Amino acid sequence: MKTIILNLRRERDELLSRPYLLRRNHYDVEALLDSRLIKLITGPRRVGKSTQALLLLRNKNFAYLNFDSQPLLDVWDANLVMRLLEDVYPGYEYILLDEVQNLNHWDMWVGELYRQGKNMVITGSNAKMLSSEMATVLTGKYIQLEMLPFSLEEFFDWNKLDLHKVLEERPTEASALMDDYLRNGGYPEMVASRQLTSSYLDTLFDSIVWKDVARRHHVRNITDLNNLAVYLVSNFCNFVSANDLTEELGFSSVNTTKKFMDYLHEPYLFYYLPRYNSKLKLMKKASRKVYVVDNGFVVAKAFALSENLGRLLENQVFIELLRRGYSTEKSLFYYHSRNGKEVDFVLRKGAKIECLMQVCYDMRGAKTEKREIDSLVECAEELKCNNLVIVTNNEERIIEKNGYKIRVVPVAKF
């Protein structure tokens, strides 16, 4: 066992020696690490959760266990491991548990370490980490840090460029990179290998569906699950309902469809945006809009005869709003007016609506501008909101209509 622990220490040190891009975040790292709450880093597969954990602890004395190590799992002895950690990492302050869900009854063991006062950082597959284990055994004992693929700013950071400086000094280069990000997304491993992006994300998508979802939930009809996943990614930014999907895809029951939709949300593959309504019962009945965690999945898996830059931009903006802490069914919605006008995003803070937001790739046409402005103004009147924004690909101006001032903002500045 000690040989295994020593090998894992060498693995940790080798990982720490590599150069990494420091991800942008909105939390105080020192305050986070000082907290005795378990730090749970969640998010889609392959977005850099383990890397983020290493960066959090880089200058600290921390022990490291990687439960992707089969030798460790084969000879697991919790008491012996804890004694050996004291020997291999004298005086350690933190423990990093990577992919801990691979350990049987991991939640009970982590709960015991918490009671002993151990300061832990945990990473793992979100589909497993946020199941009943975290919700029951560890309730109130952890803080969740969500990670997503690179943002647009982080994509430029990786290219060693400042997004806003490049926009002013080399607009053509900035435009090309922004278009690349819009179409291919921000999965960290693929930003340097764009020719492989589609193949890589195709394989990753299938792995999430077939392994993370089907295997975890013991899905028998994997073909139906896969068909639903492909249908959703092909119809991103569109309205969906379990009833319509059941009929469209020929599923056996609406309950099966609802269950599969929930399964596909668990690993952060798809999100479902509800319609804003002050009455919760009515909100639950309305169709939801479906979004995918990264635009690259659209190129890799969607069945589409033509690209839709408008929907790609809308999906990009949606994921950015998630990065900023907005949450579906709590602070992020879409809205339909009584006359059927739509606004893409309603941003709420507490009980107050703080912003209405439209997304329109190109608003230079008179008909397009009228449609977007009329929808936004009508919804603003009904929801009593004066903070109105339209996010576009590259337009910037102020539009005034019916006493409302609407800010048109290019996505890079947004």
Key terms:
414 residues, alpha/beta, six-stranded mixed sheet, five-stranded parallel sheet
What is the radius of gyration? 23 Å
Biggest beta-sheet profile: 6 strands, mixed
Strand content: 15-25%
Number of strands: 14
Helical content stands at 40-55%
Count of DSSP-assigned helices? 19
* Alpha-carbon distance between the two ends: 52 Å
Secondary-structure content class: alpha/beta
Strand order of the largest sheet: 9-10-11-12-14-13
Average pLDDT over all residues = 93
Shape: globular
> Which ranges are low-confidence, i.e. pLDDT below 50, for 5 or more consecutive residues?
none
Concise synopsis of the structure shown:
The chain is α/β, with parallel strands linked by helices and 414 residues long. It is built from 19 helices and 14 strands.
What would your notes on this structure say?
- The protein has 414 residues and is α/β, with parallel strands linked by helices.
- It is 46% helix and 18% strand.
- The chain has helices at residues 2-16, 29-34, 49-57, 70-74, 78-88, 106-115, 126-129, 132-136, 152-158, 163-169, 171-184, 197-215, 222-234, 242-249, 254-265, 280-285, 296-301, 309-323, 366-383, and strands at 38-42, 62-66, 94-98, 119-123, 142-146, 239-240, 270-273, 288-292, 332-336, 342-349, 352-359, 388-392, 397-401, 404-410.
- A hairpin with a 2-residue loop joins strand 13 and strand 14 (404-410).
- Helix 10 crosses helix 11 (171-184).
- The model has no long low-confidence stretch (mean pLDDT 93).
